[in-house]
Every structure is written in C-alpha cells, then in structure tokens.
C-alpha cells in the first residue's frame, strides 16, 4: 500500500514538475514570438511588448500591448498611449492542457482584445458595435514540436444608425505552422455576410474565403507565396442601380527555380454586371506569368526598399516633431544613394537576357461568346545579350531600346464591341493590312524585335508603320475632334 502511495506521489510530483517546466517554456515562447514581430521596420518607436506576465502552475495571464515611445511618444504631447491597445491572454500549460477539453501539448492560449483602457467615447462605440464582446478574439495551440495552430476572429456585427447600416456575419483567419520553423505558414481567410449601406451607396459581399500560404522566405526577405481566394456576391449599388457586381476567383504563386524566380497570377470574374464599362461582359479573365527574375537581385531590392522605408519614416518623424533637423541632409544623401543602388540592381541584375519573360492575357465573354482577347508575351534580350548600367540605359535611343525586347501581341475583338466612332478608322487600318476583319471579328497579330515587325504575317518596319499611322490619322484641324476624342466623348455621354 505504501509503495502504491509512493508511486502516486511520484507521478503527481512529476506531473507538477513537468507542468511547471512547460509553463516556463511557454513564457519563453510567448515572449520570443512577440519580440520577433516588427511593426515599424528599423525603429523601436512603436513595438509590441509583453508588459505583464503572471505565471502560475497550470496557467498564466499575460498582456501584450502596443508600446509607443521615442519620437512618436513625444508627438503625443505627453499623453501616455502605452497600454491602451492590448491583447489579454490566458496561457494554459501542458503537457496536459485543460482548455475547452483536454489535450496533450506545450501550451494553448485564449486571447481577447482589451478595450478597458481606451478613451470612454471609443470604448462606448466598440461596445455598441460588438455587443460587449472583444473586437478581436483568438485561440492557439502549441505542440511539443513547435507546431502552431491559431485562429483570430471578429464577433458578428449588426449596427444601424441614421447614417446607414453595417453588417458582418463572420470574419476569421486560421493559421497553421507545421513545425518550429517560421515557414511554411499556412492561413485561411473567411469573410461572410458583409454589407455596408450609406446615403452614398451600398457595398455587399456574400463571402470571401481561401488560403494564403507563405511557403518559404528567401534570405528572410522575399516570401514565396501561394494564394487561392474565391468571392461570391460582391456588389456596389448607387441610387438603386447596380454599378458593379461579380463573383471572383484569385490565384497566384511564386516558385523558386534555383537562381531565378517564376510566378503567375490570375483573376476570374463571373456573373459580371458592369453597365458603365465600355466592353459588355458577363465573365472575364486577367492573368500574368513571369519567368527568369534573378533571385539574389530581388532579395537585394527588398533590402533596399526596407531601408528606404526606414529613412523616410525617420525623416517624417523628424519633420513632425521638429527635432533632428540637422540629420536631414545626411538622410537625403542616404535616400539618393539607395535610389541609385535600386536603379543599378534593376538595370544590371534583376533580368536575365534571353531568359526573363512576361506574359499577360485578358479574355472577355458575353452569353458564352468571346468578345475580346488580348495575349502578349515579352522576352528580355538585353543589348547584344548584356545588361547595361542605368545611366547607359537612359542614353539609348528608341531603336536601341527596341532591340532589347522580343514581343508578340495577339488581339481579337468581336464586331459588337467596336464603338461606332472607331469603325471607320479600323476599316482604314484593314485596307493597309494593319488589322484583319473576318467572321465578324477584328484581329491583329504583331511580332516585334528591334526595328523589324511582322504584322499579320507581313514583314515591315517600325518606321514604315509609324509613317502609315500618321498618314491615316492626320492631326485634327481647328475645332475638329480626333477619333480618340470622339470615342472618349461618347463614353462620357454614356
């Protein structure tokens, strides 16, 4: 009997010891996660900090607050803003976690945005909007392997006033980090039942949902992403008229291909209502693909951009506060140096002659029939196969710049899309072979490289085409309107 009691005592003490140790680990983890968040890159004027952490045996209480200090605090005119925007967290310690059930893990948290320290007027507004609940609520779970699952959500909103109505049935972001590594980080966004109504108009969105994943981070600078979002029932209504409405799918990703990056993005629109657009449509697609972007150059550009942001922020704070004016000249010089570096990287490193390409495509349909097609592809060649310094690039003339690209363009437009003021001009272009009209459609195919052009299978030159277009489009005399001006005037009248 004594042996059994001793065994139970050892187990209990072991569990308590493990819980105490895990609680210590959980505090280290929470403080580390918060310290790694940067709100104002390169500056500590505004940071997130764990201002309170009360560690207990089975759970802890913590406040993570926005801390405003330095120049920003001085701008507040002596008002102490620190501690007014906080997340209150309850951290449940493992290895046995008692939070909404029992689970095995390192820790779990329940979080809520604290409005108690806000000014009374702001606090009253938030309490009315969110019916007494916290504006943001969260929960998370940390596994022993460092994995993380978390959810951040906003309570439903249903507010009506003389100025209009605001409604939101659901807003949540779910995140999964499979290991202790910062990436991959997978997230899923859900928005449902959004409606905002005011005297100026109404915007509605039935749903928006999908994944936004950061697959990897190149040199801690450039994210590799994978995005898949779908929306239903977006509409903008003014004076009872639907000015714009559609369902949409957005997809995009970037891929690490060794020394270069590739990527693509596209948006598909369905059930389109857009009476003010010049091209009638009920569905459309816009897409872009790129290949051969130098990875090291992109990382360098990101670092330059980040430092530029830091310098601009410092200059703005100095200008607002009236302090640090003596540093303004050195900051301007640093900005100029960074801009020169950026231009140099873009002109000499970012693109790979012969390998860097960009393709863009646009499709428009109506009643199941294709109304408009635009498909282009540009391949960067460099000048004689080489990149040039920025100052040399700026000195090139038009013909030399033309030799740096190999471009193809395909355009196909239905008769019903062509505005009447442009029809006569297109017919003149057709007579010269610049466009082709067949089967109730207007079509043009262009391949351009250097000064040579192939238009609809016919070889010509840039100079010849320019001269021909100038002949077909003489400048207007007196008060006469050009074809383009007539077209724009018709759009304005519509």
Explain what the structure shows.
InterPro entries: DUF945. This is DUF945 family protein. It comes from Alcanivorax profundi. Pfam families: DUF945. The chain is built from ten helices and 24 strands. Strand 13 (201-218) and strand 14 form a beta hairpin. It is globular and about 85 Å long. The chain has helices at residues 2-35, 70-75, 120-129, 295-321, 328-348, 390-393, 398-402, 420-431, 462-472, 483-493, and strands at residues 46-55, 59-68, 86-93, 96-98, 102-104, 107-114, 137-142, 148-154, 157-161, 164-168, 170-177, 185-198, 201-218, 222-238, 241-257, 260-273, 283-294, 357-366, 369-380, 405-414, 436-438, 441-449, 452-455, 458-461. It is an alpha+beta fold and 494 residues long. The termini are far apart. Mean pLDDT is 83; it is low at 1-16. The strands form two sheets. It has a 22-stranded antiparallel sheet that branches. Strands 4-5 form a two-stranded antiparallel ribbon. The protein folds into three domains: 1-155, no CATH class; 157-178 and 185-236, no CATH class; 362-493, no CATH class.
């Amino acid at each position: 009997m004594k042996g059994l009691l001793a065994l139970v005592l050892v187990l209990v003490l072991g569990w308590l010891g493990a819980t105490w140790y895990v609680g210590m680990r959980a505090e280290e983890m929470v403080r580390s996660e918060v310290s790694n968040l940067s709100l104002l890159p390169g500056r500590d004027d505004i940071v997130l900090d764990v201002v309170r952490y009360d560690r207990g045996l089975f759970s802890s209480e913590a406040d993570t607050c926005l801390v405003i200090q330095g120049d920003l605090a001085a701008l507040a005119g002596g008002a102490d803003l620190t501690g007014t925007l906080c997340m209150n967290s309850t951290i449940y310690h493992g290895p046995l976690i008692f939070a909404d059930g029992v689970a095995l893990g390192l820790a779990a948290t329940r979080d809520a945005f604290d409005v108690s320290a806000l000014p009374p007027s702001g606090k009253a507004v938030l309490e009315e909007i969110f019916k007494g609940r916290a504006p943001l609520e969260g929960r998370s779970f940390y596994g022993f392997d460092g994995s993380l699952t978390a959810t951040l959500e906003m309570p439903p909103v249903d507010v009506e006033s003389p100025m209009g109505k605001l409604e939101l049935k659901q807003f949540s972001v779910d995140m999964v980090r499979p290991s202790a590594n910062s990436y991959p980080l997978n997230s899923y966004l859900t928005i449902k039942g959004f409606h905002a109504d005011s005297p100026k108009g109404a915007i509605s969105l039935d749903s928006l949902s999908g994944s936004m994943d950061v697959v990897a981070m190149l040199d801690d600078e450039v994210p590799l992403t994978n995005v898949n979002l779908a929306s239903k029932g977006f509409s903008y209504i003014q004076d009872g008229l639907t000015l714009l409405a559609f369902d949409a799918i957005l997809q995009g990703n970037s891929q690490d291909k060794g020394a270069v990056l590739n990527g693509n993005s596209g948006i598909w629109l369905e059930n389109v209502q857009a009476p003010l657009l010049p091209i009638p449509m009920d569905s459309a697609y816009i897409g872009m693909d790129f290949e051969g972007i130098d990875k090291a150059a992109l990382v360098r550009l990101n670092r330059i951009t980040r430092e530029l942001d830091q310098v601009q922020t410092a200059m703005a704070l100095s200008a607002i506060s009236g302090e640090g004016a003596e540093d303004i000249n050195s900051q301007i010089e640093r900005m100029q140096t960074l801009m020169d570096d950026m231009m140099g990287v873009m002109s000499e490193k970012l693109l790979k002659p012969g390998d860097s390409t960009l393709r863009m495509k646009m499709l428009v349909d109506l009643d199941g029939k294709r109304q408009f097609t635009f498909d282009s592809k540009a391949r960067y060649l460099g000048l004689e196969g080489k990149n040039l310094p920025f100052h040399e690039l700026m000195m090139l003339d038009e013909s030399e710049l033309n030799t740096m690209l190999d471009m193809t363009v395909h355009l196909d437009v239905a008769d019903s899309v062509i505005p009447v003021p442009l029809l006569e001009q297109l017919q003149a272009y057709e007579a010269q072979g610049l466009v082709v009209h067949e089967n109730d459609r207007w079509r043009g195919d262009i391949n351009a490289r250097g000064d040579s052009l192939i238009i609809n299978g016919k070889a010509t030159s840039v100079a010849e085409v320019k001269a021909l277009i100038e002949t077909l489009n003489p400048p207007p005399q007196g008060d006469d309107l050009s074809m383009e001006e007539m077209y724009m005037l018709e759009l304005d009248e519509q």
